[in-house]
Each structure stands twice: as structure tokens, then as C-alpha cells.
């Protein structure tokens, strides 16, 4: 989890808010998908 935030800070500092938001959205989307899949099983 700390590694994720570290990567987010690095991306945020180098490429700006848009890239950081894209990564965050994708990460939360994957978490929701995995949670949904585990609920089905």
C-alpha cells in the first residue's frame, strides 16, 4: 500500500494530476472488480 502511494507521488510530481488520477481510478476500479468477483464466488 505504501508503495502504491509512493508511485502515485512520483507520477504526480513528474506528469501532473491527470496521470495520477488515471492511475487512482484504474486502481480503485480493479479493487471493485476483484471484490465483485469474490462476492459472486
How would you characterize this protein structure?
It is a single chain. With 41 residues, this protein is mostly helical. It has one domain (2-40). The protein is 93% helix and 0% strand. The chain is built from two helices and no strands. α1 runs antiparallel to α2. The longest helix is centred in the C-terminal third of the chain and has 24 residues, at 17-40. It is elongated and about 40 Å long. The mean pLDDT is 76.
Low-confidence stretches: none
Spatial shape? elongated
Count up the helices: 2
Give Rg in angstroms. 13 Å
Determine the strand fraction and express it as a percent band.
under 5%
Q: What's the β-strand tally?
A: 0
Mean model confidence by pLDDT? 76
Classify the helix fraction into a percent range.
Answer: over 70%
Structural class: mainly alpha
What is the N-to-C succession of helices and strands? HH
Main sheet: strands, sense, barrel: none
Distance between the termini: 25 Å
Domain tally = 1
Kindly summarize this structure in a few lines.
By secondary structure, the protein is mostly helical. It is built from two helices and no strands.
Which labels suit this protein?
93% helix
Topology, please?
Elements: H1 2-15, H2 17-40
Helix pairs in contact: 1-2
Amino acid at each position: 500500500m505504501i508503495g502504491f502511494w509512493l508511485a502515485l507521488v512520483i507520477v504526480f510530481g513528474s506528469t501532473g494530476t491527470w496521470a495520477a488520477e488515471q492511475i487512482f481510478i484504474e486502481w480503485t476500479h480493479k479493487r471493485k472488480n476483484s471484490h465483485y468477483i469474490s462476492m459472486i464466488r
